[in-house]
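To the wet lab folks,

You asked to see what we're planning to order before we commit. Fair enough. Below is the target structure as C-alpha cells, and below that is the sequence we designed to fit it. If anything looks off to you, flag it before the synthesis order goes out.
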C-alpha cells in the first residue's frame, strides 16, 4: 500500500512539474508576443511619422514663379531671337554691333531713356558682379536648381558678390552700354538653366520648374 502511494505521489509530482513547465512556456510566449506587437506597432508609427515629416517639408518648399525684373509700365524694346518667329519679330531681335547683326540672347527693357529700378526676378545667390567695358555693370543671380538670371547694362549695383538676394529686391539701376548703344538707357535681361539659354518673356509668370 505504501508502495502504491509513493508511486501515485511521484506521478502527481511529475504531472505538476510538467504543467508548471508548460505553463511557464505559455507565459513567456505571451510576454514575447506582447513585446513583439508593441515593437511592430511602434515601428509602424515611426515610419508613418517620418513620411508625414518628409511630406510636410516638401510642401513647405515653395516653387517660385519667374517675375519681371522691372516694375509695371516698363516695356520690352528688343525681343529674344527665335528662329521660328516671323521676319518682323526676328528683325526686332537683332543687335547691330561693330557692323555685324547678332541674335539677341535675352530681352531688353527701356523707359523712354529714363533710369529705373532693376529687380531680382528670382531668389538666389549673387554669382557674378562685374563692370564690363562693353556691357556695363553685370549681375548674375543663381538659385539651387541652377537657374540663373543675368542683368546687364546697369549703371549702378546695390548687391554684393556671394550674398543671398530675395525675389523682388532692388539689385541696381538701368543704364547705357556700348553693346546696345542704340537703346540708350535700358536693361538687358538673360535667363539660363544649366548654361542653356531660354526666352525670358515666355516664362515670366510661370513656375521655375517649367523651365526646360
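Sequence we intend to order:
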Amino acid at each position: 500500500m505504501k508502495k502504491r502511494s509513493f508511486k501515485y505521489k511521484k506521478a502527481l509530482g511529475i504531472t505538476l512539474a510538467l504543467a508548471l513547465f508548460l505553463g511557464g512556456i505559455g507565459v513567456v510566449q505571451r510576454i514575447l508576443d506582447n513585446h513583439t506587437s508593441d515593437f511592430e506597432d511602434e515601428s509602424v508609427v515611426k515610419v508613418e511619422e517620418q513620411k508625414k515629416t518628409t511630406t510636410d517639408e516638401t510642401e513647405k518648399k515653395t516653387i517660385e514663379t519667374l517675375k519681371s525684373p522691372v516694375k509695371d509700365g516698363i516695356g520690352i524694346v528688343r525681343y529674344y531671337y527665335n528662329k521660328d518667329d516671323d521676319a518682323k519679330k526676328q528683325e526686332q531681335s537683332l543687335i547691330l554691333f561693330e557692323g555685324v547683326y547678332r541674335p539677341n540672347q535675352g530681352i531688353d527693357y527701356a523707359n523712354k531713356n529714363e533710369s529705373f529700378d532693376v529687380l531680382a526676378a528670382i531668389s538666389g545667390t549673387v554669382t557674378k558682379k562685374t563692370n564690363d567695358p562693353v556691357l556695363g555693370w553685370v549681375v548674375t543671380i543663381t538659385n539651387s536648381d541652377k537657374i540663373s538670371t543675368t542683368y546687364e547694362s546697369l549703371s549702378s549695383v546695390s548687391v554684393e558678390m556671394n550674398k543671398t538676394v530675395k525675389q523682388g529686391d532692388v539689385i541696381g539701376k538701368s543704364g547705357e552700354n556700348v553693346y546696345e548703344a542704340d537703346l540708350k538707357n535700358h536693361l538687358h535681361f538673360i535667363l539660363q538653366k544649366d548654361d542653356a539659354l531660354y526666352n525670358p518673356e515666355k516664362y515670366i509668370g510661370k513656375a521655375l520648374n517649367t523651365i526646360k
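Structural context that might help your review: The first strand starts at residue 75 and ends at 78. The chain has two domains: 1-61, 75-210.

Thanks,
Computational group
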